[in-house]
Amino acid sequence: MPDANADNAPYVDVLIQMIERLPPGAARQLFDKLYQECDRLLTILRDESLGLEETVNTAHEFKGMLGNFGLSNASAIAAEIERNSKPARSLDDEIHRLEFAIAEEMQKIEAILQQNDS
Amino acid sequence: MEIHNFVSILQQPLVSMGGATDLGLRRTTMNIVIIDDNAANAMLVETWVQQIDDAVTISFNDSSEGLAWCEANQPDLILLDQMMPKMNGIEFLKRFRAQDTENAIPIVMITANADRQTLYNALEAGATDFLSKPFDPTELLARTRNLLKLRANHLELKETIGRLHYLATTDTLTETANRAHFFDRLNEELDRTRRTGKALSLAVMDADRFKLINDTFGHSAGDTVLKSLADTTKGLLRNHDIVGRLGGEEFAICMPETNLEEGVHVCERLCRTVAENRVELAGRSLKVTVSIGVSQFVSETDTADSLMKKADFLLYRAKDSGRNRVIGTNENRMSEFPSMVS
Hints:
The structure holds two protein chains of two kinds.
Chain A (H helix, E strand, L loop, with lengths): L9 H12 L4 H21 L5 H17 L3 H13 L7 H26 L1
Helix pairs in contact in A: 1-5, 2-3, 2-5, 3-4, 4-5
Chain B lengths: L1 E2 L2 H6 L18 E6 L3 H11 L5 E6 L2 H11 L3 E5 L7 H11 L7 E5 L4 H10 L3 E4 L4 H33 E2 L4 E2 L1 H18 L3 E8 L2 H8 L1 H18 L5 E6 L2 E7 L3 H17 L2 E3 L2 E3 L3 E7 L7 H17 L5 E4 L8 H4 L1
Helix pairs in contact in B: 3-4, 8-9, 9-10
């Protein structure tokens, strides 16, 4: 069971609910799927030939997905990308920040999942 | 596309007559479709709703595939993402509701665009409920359970209405129209005949010496004879002809777009077939015959009642002439029908 007092980030609440209410192993499977989808969406965002509409839609999808899993910091950066996308404007910095925020939150989630597995 | 328990969905009966489930539903399973282009979101929603005991889920990442499946399979609940490539949630709603005109299948729109305009658009397009991302699993499950209960109630009500309609319109022994429904249908056909100027024939058929069958073999045997007569009659007629049981051993047949000559011809064939088909009763083979009177719509003043009286009068002439025969006329003069003016 994750220690909810250690971190009050939304993903802790998401994890607690999953671990308490879903079958064993479900939380792990769901976050594995989230990893995969993050990879897929980051690859799309990094594509320099991506048009404005596709960028906005991908960022929107990212925002909703990360929010559903409680990765609020990463979701907020995805929302920024959705809001601030403009033609010919480089999003390298935002994408880098997004990638970093995902890695940071995922690391903490992984620690909780491993704690729960043991 | 991910499919869970897909085969079991197809194999399970749509409506169970068994006891209530933990949702309080009479049905054994409720089919929930999740449509979200994002695989992680779809899996998250699906994993949560699978916690409902009676739910069987199927998810689609492609909204067009999801729409095709929903149109073909009529699920019990759809959980729909709003922003999707190719076809977004609003477009999905419009297309799906175009064929689901009763709005009978609940659809919950799930979106990260929680602004009022998106909400209005979704509701106007036919969404039943709305859920914002990030969603709260407890709220998702509560809304899903509530909508599944409403869906189950709707299906039970529909089934009950269907049953009541059947009981109100059908003679349950012979599975022909009952008297009231036969007259309703006859009047509709007469209206059509007046509009189109086409022909219409009406026959009244009575089992010969039916009282003797009942007295000799019992009422159960009489019921078997009536059912056999009805089956033979329905088997010989066209789909748009109408057969009704007027009462006792008397049946009526409305034959739209059929003139007297054709109507008499059909009834003669029926009369012959009935006489040839013996009815099996507790190891005994019984010959049953019928007498039939046939009248034809002739003038604007003809009504269901007047046509019925003419056919009925001719039926009794057939009886008086030796039974097992058909008599028809398109005569419209009242003097030809003394029983009507007495």
